[in-house]
Amino acid sequence: MTGGGPGIGAHEDRDALDVEDFIDIYRLNTIAPFQAVRACAPALRASPMGAVVSAASVAGVFGMGSSVAPADSKGALVMMTKNLARGLGPKIRVNAARKRRIFKPIPRAKPIDVDS
Q: Cα(96)–Cα(6) distance, rounded to whole angstroms?
């Protein structure tokens, strides 16, 4: 699994985001996953089931919110994942996954009638 990690810097406030934080966020979300895939590519090619899964983000797909650097870096990660899939596939499977809220309520279990 590549991409993601703890928050860095004041990324909700565009004016407070300095260049170093912006670069650090790109390093974490885009450059580090690329370096990891590049380092692991020989082993992935040798494996009969080589696979890469990038940790994408809804903000990186739809460009939402005010978190410019994280959204931009995740957008770059999504595009990089597509390009890696083209370049490494079909031998190595490359995908991106993103977490999503589930709004459907969890059904409550019905009581079991033990007397019948």
A: 18
pLDDT at position 11: 57
Centre a 10 Å sphere on the Cβ of residue 8 and count the other Cβ atoms it contains: 18
At 29 the pLDDT is 92
113 domain-assigned: no
Residue 104: CA count within 13 A, CB half-sphere: 4
Identify the CATH number of the domain in which residue 47 sits: 3.40.50.720
User: Which long-range contacts does 65-72 make (Cβ < 8 Å, 24+ apart)?
Assistant: 66/12, 66/13, 66/14, 67/11, 67/12, 68/11, 68/14, 68/17, 68/22, 69/9, 69/11, 69/17, 69/21, 69/22, 69/25, 69/26, 70/7, 70/11, 70/25, 70/29, 72/26
Domain count, the chain: 1
Distance CA 29, CA 35 (A): 11
Q: Tell me the mean pLDDT in the region 59-81.
A: 84
- What is residue 65's DSSP assignment? S
